[in-house]
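Re: Re: token formats

Sure, here are both.
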Amino acid sequence: MTIRTKRLENKEKVGTVLDREILRKVKERSAREGRTISDIIQDALLKYNDTDSTKSELRKSAVTRFCSKPFNLNMREMNELLSEDIYEL
């Protein structure tokens, strides 16, 4: 999904403040990959923008439901269920 553009058409210069360690890592990676920092940041922003916030919210609510105790099982009951042979008829 890498979009490599060298021309400045349809581009806008932006200024931002980044953590030094993050910027150091991005610079190292850009040198290793032979890409510009701008290309790496642009790819990251495109991925971020493509992330469906609905899916993210669904995942968060699923984790909340999974990690809560809707059935209020005690440890004995949990161990009993976990030691049960699921292949036994």
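Second one below.
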Amino acid sequence: MDSEAVKIYRKSMLAVLILLSITLTLSMNFASATTPVSTDSNQTGSSDQSLNQGLNGNIISQKDQKLANDGNQQITSQNNQLSNSKQSEYLAAGSTSTAATSSQSVTFTIDQVNQAASSVKSFIDTNNRLPNYVTISGQQIIMPQFLQLLGNAILNINSGKTSSITLKDPDSPINPTESVKSGSIQKTEYVKLVENLNSFINTNGRLPNYVTSSLGKIRYESLIYMCSKILVFYDTNNRLPSSVSITPWTGITITDPALLPYLQPTDNCQSTSSTITSLAASITSTLTSTYAKAAAIFNWVRDNVSYSFYYNTKKGALGALSSRTANCCDTSHLVVALARAAGIPARYQHGSCTFSDGVFGHVWAQLYVNGKWYYADAISDSNTFGTINNWSLKTLYGTYVELPF
């Protein structure tokens, strides 16, 4: 190609490039003109929201988008659950399960607490005991939590408030007691009782052992039943009752199938022997609470049976009681037998434990009180009910209804 042709070719290519540049510039300006620039300081958030549009075109948050994906793209509102399946949302249960705790604040409406109160009252009327928990909108609420909700609902209703109630997690009473006669208390008094209860919980982080009324000392089970009856009346009549009846709490009858095996006699645990039942009755005769009875049984065995070293079971509960000396297995047999004779569920645990003089295989008892298993190792004077001071657990081997060795 000669030099003149080269010059013409270069000029043609330059013209083409110039035309392409002009076209590109016009396209970019057109796009800018049809998409206004946001001056909102939350522009980044707006962009994130536009990426999270649901299939129906509504904008949902990133958290809800994850919930939709994790739950087969179905987001069910709490209110819809309540209206469509209210009965199942307020089931009272006798399981030994405990409520799951959460760091997030959980609130319930007065209507939700009212419906749960109806369920709990029905459960008590049928079973002559408290349920271990009541389910409100999918949340398992144990009884100390529920009493706090009941009290706040009554106070809100009395003061005309309709605000939701925040769930708290108070501990159970340390040693619940009751000495109350049957009768009725007036509205002004039961509102004051609930105010005192609420103040105690807020100050101490647990339920009181009792509250004082004109009829005597009322323990927490009776308070739960009383408050439930008040809210059931309110739910029907749209007002608080002028008075509420009180009857003594005669005790909790264990009917939970999961606990029944821990009340039965087993090999070397002769809990139905007249010798064992008479001693259990003697130890607990002046006591009213399950906790006090369990602690008294533990203390009696610890203080009256000395420790002797040998392997595995040789004497059983009756032999340990007769000889007043036993190893860990036979001491545990006696603790478990006395507890079961007193109507307290009891079991065995076996593990490798570190003592001051070395690591040994060891057996100890546990007693079930107020929804919790308590350590009851009576081989050492340094131990107390619920607390182990003479060893630390290295390895847990098993938990038993009946000790197999």
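The chain has 13 helices and 16 strands. Residues 3-34 form the longest helix (32 residues).
- S.
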